[in-house]
Amino acid sequence: MVIKIHGIHGTTCTQRVLTILYEKDVPYELIPVDWRNMEHKSEDFIKYFHPFGRVPVLEDDDGFILFESRAIAKYIDKKYGAQGTKLTPDEGDLKGYALYEQACMLENIYFDKGAFGLAWENVFKRQKGDGEPDGVMVAKHAAQLDETLAVYERILSERKYLAGDELTLADLFHLPYGVMVRDLGYTSIFEDYPHVAKWFDGLMARESWKQVASFGFRKP
């Protein structure tokens, strides 16, 4: 049996997990979730897979269930640590591992705040029938993202990746929402910072992301 991922190929959090699966050379089976018919909010899905009714969800070959894309990615990298790309510093490298966890938090707390906010206002809000983009909120989220990338520029002027000179999960976690924001027309937020632009262009050029991006972003 192979790992099963319950999710939607063209959505951001599922893409985050699939990117890591490709980096680690791990075979998987994508189990499509019928978003339009609210399968993820069904009683069975909430009971057996995700208590908040979201995707993606990992179902391992031994029946182990895990939800939340970043947790799933870390699990995959740990379980298949001996194959594919090394994406986590050794825990014995105390400082290196601490910098890696710090970089993961940068993405989750700072980058995601602005990037998700722009995605929500420009895409998800309409999908959920919650109205049109709020110009004030769009400007606020764009400013948040710009502020974050200004800090990234300083970090990346001193190292190749956010946690050091080796690629980690923390870098790859940025891809789905970062690409979505760029595709929405906010390319200048990245291009205003040369080290950030070089870093992100390198991430987008990775074969793992090309495999995932070839399916494109699909609206649920």
Automatic annotation (TrEMBL):
Start and end residues of each GST C-terminal domain: 98-220
Keyword Ribosomal protein: no
PROSITE patterns: GST_CTER (PS50405), GST_NTER (PS50404)
GO molecular function: glutathione binding; glutathione transferase activity
UniProt entry keywords in alphabetical sequence: Transferase
Pfam families according to UniProt: GST_C, GST_N
Entry's Gene Ontology BP terms: glutathione metabolic process; response to toxic substance
GO cellular component: cytoplasm
GST N-terminal domain sequence ranges: 1-84
Membrane-spanning segments: none
Residues in coiled coil: none
Reaction(s) catalysed (UniProt annotation): RX + glutathione = an S-substituted glutathione + a halide anion + H(+)
EC number: 2.5.1.18
Keyword rRNA processing tagged: no
Family: Belongs to the GST superfamily. Phi family.
Full protein name: glutathione transferase
